Structure formats: structure tokens, C-alpha cells
Amino acid sequence: MDDQGDPADIEQLLDRIEAGAAGRSHVSIGEMMDAVGRRTFGPLVLLVGLILVTPLSGVPGMPTLLGLLTLLTLGQVLLGRTQFWLPSLLLRRQVPRQKLVQGLHLLRPAARRIDRLIRPRFTFLVKGPGLYAWRLRAW
Fold first, then answer.
1. 81, 22, 5, 14: which is closest to 43 by C-alpha?
2. Using CB atoms within 10 A of its CB, is residue 111 exposed (0-12), middle (13-18) or buried (19+)?
3. Burial readout 51-71 (b: 16 or more C-beta within 10 A, e: otherwise)
4. If you write DSSP's letter for every residue of 6-65 in order, what string do you get?
5. Which domain holds residue 24?
6. CA torsion sign, 95 to 34 to 21 to 43?
7. Total domain count for the chain?
8. What is the residue-wise DSSP string for 42-58?
9. pLDDT at residue 118 in the model
10. Per-residue pLDDT tens for 20-69?
11. Residue 46 and residue 10 in contact, taking contact as beta carbons nearer than 8 Å
């Protein structure tokens, strides 16, 4: 679904995950990634952070697992990858759709608050002539 572009905010990211799960009994992690696009490094790290500030962080092993996911994600950014990669073992893991939808609804209020705080600012620096100027400066 890369033709839709990257999600504009966290709430749109959650909407895409929920829309991708429609009509299924179970949803795999790979299907969730296909729904939001495979180039979404930033939103993925932010989603991990959102999960860590919920009561789910009290589940034994959850902070360690999410820390490893963050390391895997940001390590790929440092290595210059353009698409997020996960082992096929993880991509095949499935979550019951009902549990996924419940979790997404729990995350929505926090996503709205964060979206208000991190709304796009100074977009003229990263689009159009501003982006061209930054590229020239790098030379």
C-alpha cells in the first residue's frame, strides 16, 4: 500500500492497521506492516514508545522485547536501509483481530494527544525549495 504514502500521524497509522485487519479472524505482523507501509521507521519506534507508557510495560519481558524491536529498527536506519525488515518468523506471528482492535482503541486517546504535540512544523524546510537548499548545503 505504498501508493497511499506514509501515514501523516499516529492516528492515521492506527487507522491503517485497523482497516488492514477488517474481515479477518487473525492478523499477522506482516499484514499490519503491509497496511501501514514498510518504510515507516519513525512511526514504528513511536508506537513502541506508546506501548511502553501503557500498563502493558508491566508485563514481564515486554520492555525487553520492545527494546530489542527498537534496536532492530534503529539499527536498520543506521545501516541505511530504506525499508523495515523483520525475520519471517516474526512476520508470520498472528494476533487475534479482536485483541488487536481493543489494543488500538486503547492507544487512540494517547495518539491524539501526541499528534497535537508533534504536529508538522517548519515543513518548508523539508519540502520544495527548503529540501533543495539542505541538499546543496550537504555538498
1. 14
2. buried
3. beeeeeeeeeeeeeebeebee
4. S-SSHHHHHHHHHHHHTT-SEEEHHHHHHHH-TT-HHHHHHHHHHHHTSGGGGSTTHHHH
5. 2-138
6. positive
7. 1
8. HHHHHHHHHHHTSGGGG
9. 79
10. 888 889 998 888 888 877 666 877 787 788 788 888 778 888 889 888 88
11. yes
How many alpha carbons fall within 13 Å on the CB side of residue 34?
A: 9
What residue type is assigned to position 67 of the chain? G
CB atoms within 10 A of CB 23: 6
Tell me the C-alpha to C-alpha distance, in Å, between residue 85 and each of 42, 74, 88, 127, 132.
14, 11, 9, 27, 29
| Total residues belonging to the chain | 139
Helical axes 97-117 vs 41-52, angle rounded to 10° = 100
Q: How confident is the model at residue 124 (pLDDT cuts 50, 70, 90)?
A: low
